[in-house]
């Protein structure tokens, strides 16, 4: 297959999308998943990261989803980093479902109690979109998560306005991600619920999107804004949080202060972690020490890493 000179869309199609990754993930052992993850994790740690969220969603069956989550838990033993996990079984429809989304959502809801009992997930996520699952189907996943005692979050309004932000807020979601097509009513609902807006400029960039998330409305309603790499093989193959901050400032016009808050206190809030994200008495002492003159350098300079030291739980 010749890909030289091909467009991103052609390369993505050649790669097979989510289902190509599902096939590879199902074939990988837990040890192999850990080995494959470590180089990506090391790049993030090298930029000062002390806490990371890892989602499943590339197994789409009970066995592989659990294997992904166990591998994610193991990474916290392999490296000095806190790992927060999210079960994203409702990410895409597996080929064996034969197009029956309702039956697959039944299977996802049946997976959640076992995931909760084994302590494999800290939250439950879903992808609410025309190419994924409907608001009603996502709400079913949320109900199963609530019954299992797990908080929820949602991939919302990335490609169209299915009122996913409002759905997330209605269910008290920790966060709603993407939000490019979220309307004013959705933002208002998030503000009332305290749901964090997680912007993902890497996916916006790779997919060459044109619809900007409603940043001004989020500001007006004082919705906390977090930013994340959304590191995934299909739409955001990024392992640099520094680059993500630059993209958030350049593409979404976030300020320096908003970018820094987006990867610290608001990111912690999106994970439901009240013990990190700010430097306050009683909180876990996680911090990065940078060799820079002013904070703006972390956002506007490209292709450099001025990390001097990384402190986690008060220790270098």
What does this protein look like?
The protein is of the alpha/beta class. Helices cover 45% and strands 14% of the residues. It contains 14 helices and nine strands. α5 runs parallel beside α6 (135-147). It is globular, with a radius of gyration of 19 Å. The termini are far apart. The model is unreliable at 6-15 (pLDDT under 50).
Largest β sheet strand count, sense and barrel closure: 7 strands, parallel
Strand order of the largest sheet: 1-2-3-4-5-6-7
What are the low-pLDDT stretches, counting only 5+ consecutive residues below 50?
6-15
Assign a percent range to the helix content. Answer: 40-55%
The succession of helices and strands, N to C, reads HHHEHEHEHEHEHEHHEHHHEHE
Distance between the termini: 48 Å
Task: Tell me the overall shape.
Answer: globular
Helix-and-strand structural type = alpha/beta
Query: How many helices in DSSP terms?
Result: 14
Q: Could you report the average pLDDT, rounded to the nearest whole number?
A: 94
Strand percentage: 5-15%
Q: What would you report as the Rg, rounded to the nearest angstrom? A: 19 Å
Overall strand count: 9
Topology overview:
Layout (H helix, E strand, L loop, with lengths): L7 H8 L1 H11 L2 H16 L5 E5 L6 H17 L3 E9 L10 H17 L5 E6 L6 H13 L5 E4 L7 H7 L4 E4 L5 H10 L2 E4 L1 H6 L8 H6 L4 E3 L13 H12 L3 H7 L2 H6 L16 E4 L5 H5 L6 E5 L5
Parallel strand pairs: 1-2, 2-3, 3-4, 4-5, 5-6, 6-7
Antiparallel strand pairs: 8-9
Helix pairs in contact: 3-4, 5-6, 7-8, 11-12
